[in-house]
Amino acid sequence: MSAPIPDPADDRLARLFAGLHGSQPASTALIADDQVVRVLLAADPLAEDPVAAVQRAFPGQSPSVRQLGVIRLARELLRDYFAQPVYHPELGEALLRASSRLIAEALPTDGWLMRPQHPLHGLLAVVEKVAAGWYPGLPQAGDTMALLAGWLSQPAAVADRLAAAEQWFLDYQQRQERITARVAESEFGVLRLNYIRQTSARSLNRLLAGRSVPDFMAEAIAQHWAGAFQWTLLHHGEQSPLWQKLVRGFGLLLWSVQVEAADASQRSKLTRVIDQIKSELMPLLEQVIADEGLREQLREQVDIAHLCQLHARPLEYRPVPPIAGGTALDDAGAGVSQDLLSEVAAIHVGDWFSETASGRRLRLLLKLDEYQQLLFVNQFGMKQASASFEEFAWQFSSAQISALVAPVPLREWAAERLTTLADQYRQRQRSREQEHRARQEAEQQEARAREQARSKALAEARQLAETRQRQKAEGEALQQAELELEQARRESVAAGHGASEAQRRQRARLLVSGLSMGVWLTFHDDKGEQTRRKLAVVLPSSGKYIFVDRLGTDKYEVLRDDLIAGIAAGAIDVVRKDSRFDDALTRVVDGIRQDRGWGDG
Questions:
Q1: pTM > 0.70: yes or no
Q2: Burial track 296-320 (b if 16+ CB lie within 10 A, e otherwise)
Q3: CATH assignment of 481-596?
């Protein structure tokens, strides 16, 4: 039976993890994938390392490098994936605890690590949609958590689990759509009324701005004028001419009843404003207030206040409490900039949000641009909160509510992490290649250094041999000269008479011809003093011999003929380091002197 052909993806993973973590020891018995899967299914990814659980279950054996790499990578990917904001921390921990089967399903060669079309990715896409609205305080939160964990951990095939999850979510969506449709229909009018109350209250509060009014007018403003503002907005809208006239006329009315308006310097302006109120604001009461008796009461209050102002009669003033129905921002006298309001334009129906304080998950169901109102529901479509654009922008900017960013799919996590590992593998390979090249260069450099040292040693050996050969030749020449001197001495002794001047010069010439570099000579002066000098340089072209003292500083130059003459005359002697040679030479020279009758002078 032939061995199965390895899957290319499996081979790539094996090579990748081997390059990162080292090769499998050849002496270690490997564990089969199905055995590893059985251990993983019984392990708790949060309580222990799955690799340690596998190694403990099979003592003496070892997971393959591919198995180790896949298990560790799958566990790390799932931990990071379930830590995304779309998963509430409690839900993310529960799903990670139930993910042992997901780790096991990454082991096969066709596992989800290398297959973007693996059914697990579709299953997690359904889990993400349900998880976005989950929080502990949600009704039936425990049941929902168990449902999601079951989708991940059930022993059925991934494709079957995906089909069951998609069918459940389809039924869930249909139920939710029916509920949200009823909520949207019933809440639309409420949101519109909220807008009316908030806008009219905001307009009145801004016009009052902490001002005091005659006491008999204060209650009417809160009860009747506020109703007139709301009716106008409800039936005509904020952009209508009627609304604009009402706001402008009421602002003039508030100014006309202030203490400073009764000052004598403001009398002409007050008169003009009163006339304008009578001609513009009072006729509007016929349209915005249906009760005729109430209209007469309001006109009478305005007339009394104006008569007192024109005749400088004192009035009792009191502040008007803030008109109810405004937002928290209105009550605080705050506003929201256009930059913050632009954040609201970026949100869409269906987006999920999380409240920081309560942890609630809210889905935007309605966004009414005309009335600047938002409606939020929970996972089951039940109303949770409503807010104006300004309120939401303020809560969003102060981090009281935050948007749930769409989760990154697990397939993208896997692709990104595998790409990172591949880059690390290539970097490690480059480092190894660089180390190998550096090692080769070092070895080559060391070989070149050894070769240079060997060549240098050979050159020095050749030079030493040549020097020894030259010294040997010089020694033989000197020995020959000594033999000739000895022969001359013997001949002189045998003849019994002194040598002639010509013979002494001949022997001195032979001695000078045999002088080698570094030989020491003794020079005798007329006073009988002796000076030793060493032969340092011979200049054949000029016949000049240069001697130096022991320090090499005192130079003494002698021409060849003068050197021969000095040696022949006995004024210069050759000195050798070998005492036997020195003694022999001295005996020869003394003998010659005695035989030839030379004197010391």
A1: no
A2: eebeebbebbbeebeeeeebeeeeb
A3: 2.30.30.30
